[in-house]
Amino acid sequence: MENESVAKSLKLFIVLSRAYKAINEHVNKVIQANGLNPTEFAVLELLYHKGDQPMQQIGGKILLASGSITYVVDKLEQKGMLKRIACPNDRRVTYAQITDEGKSFIQEIFPEHARQIHDLMSSLSDTEKDEAIHLLKKLGLPAGKF
Amino acid sequence: MENESVAKSLKLFIVLSRAYKAINEHVNKVIQANGLNPTEFAVLELLYHKGDQPMQQIGGKILLASGSITYVVDKLEQKGMLKRIACPNDRRVTYAQITDEGKSFIQEIFPEHARQIHDLMSSLSDTEKDEAIHLLKKLGLPAGKF
DNA sequence: TAATATTATCTCAATTTCAAAATTATTATA
DNA sequence: TATAATAATTTTGAAATTGAGATAATATTA
After folding, report:
1. pLDDT in tens, chain A (146 residues)
2. How close A145 comes to chain B (CA, Å)?
3. CA gap A41, A47 in Å, rounded
4. I need a surface site. Which of A9, A17, B5, B74 has the fewest CB within 10 A?
């Protein structure tokens, strides 16, 4: 029956939302306890792990409007966590670059961050995690392109 | 190796976030195209499907701060989608109740909403959806209680 | 080359959210 | 019945996010 299949999709949407929100709520608390908000942390982590990024690409990866990027980068710059670097080739472009201070911040926070996520995921076995990763990739990748 | 297991948890966290955000972004667009923001829709849908709710319980179910509930309920009341009903037993509590106008709004929107979610989930077979539901429940329920 | 379109960033006003304090009502206790 | 503790909602002010232009640089094309 077609209706049952739609109901199943709705059910999946609900459990997906619940799982994400429940986990995220805890993760955000640890981040905020360290003086950053979740968006700031996401930007800083991106720069730490992926290197310098043009402002716009940050928006693409973190899913943030252009006005918000300026705001967040301002905040992080004020805190000394990153600096703006003018692009030598294209004067329209500004890179965001993590500072040494930003790096040591991430280095200090990240292990606790990772450990907490690991704890929150402990209800699944490693095999189940692999299954979940597989299914969520299969679900998320096409949805991003609609 | 313990580190690999932590890395797997981080990976799962990332694909979970991506999948949720990718799907949610699309869902929110349809809702906003119909003149409500996602929070307003969530409240209205809750009242439609679960009946009258005390203000505070709305916050618990939608994961919203108490101050925000007042704001959202104000908005929906202004739009004629719900009304406040004083509780006869306890004068501290106020129920939010969906109006006929709110009901027909949901009735009009919901099929499109459900159909869109179904489309966004179409990369998984029914069996895979069942597996994903199982795993996400197992993941989300304990995380909610930490 | 000049005109036009596109792109990247920023500014600004409006919206949404939260956190903390204030208000009002209920319940427990002495 | 006072009094204190608890609870539900609202108010207030600040922070975060968006979307719509504004500005400036680059790319395209006639």
Report:
1. 678 899 999 999 999 998 998 899 899 988 999 999 999 999 999 999 999 999 999 999 998 999 999 999 999 999 999 999 999 999 999 999 999 999 999 999 999 999 999 999 999 999 999 999 999 999 987 776 66
2. 9
3. 10
4. B74
> Quick check: A49 contacting B, CB < 8 Å?
no
Nucleotides of C under 7 A from a protein CB: 7-13, 15-21, 24-27
For residue A55, say whether its CB is under 7 Å from any atom of strand C.
yes
As a whole number of angstroms, the distance between CA A97 and CA A104 comes to 14
**Distance between CA atoms of A2 and B131, rounded to whole angstroms?**
19
Domains and CATH numbers, chain B: 15-144 (1.10.10.10)
Torsions phi, psi for A89 (to 5 deg): -85, -40
Which pLDDT belongs to residue B3? 81
DSSP string, A42-99: HHHHHHHHH--EEHHHHHHHHT--HHHHHHHHHHHHHTTSEEEEE-SS-TT-EEEEE-
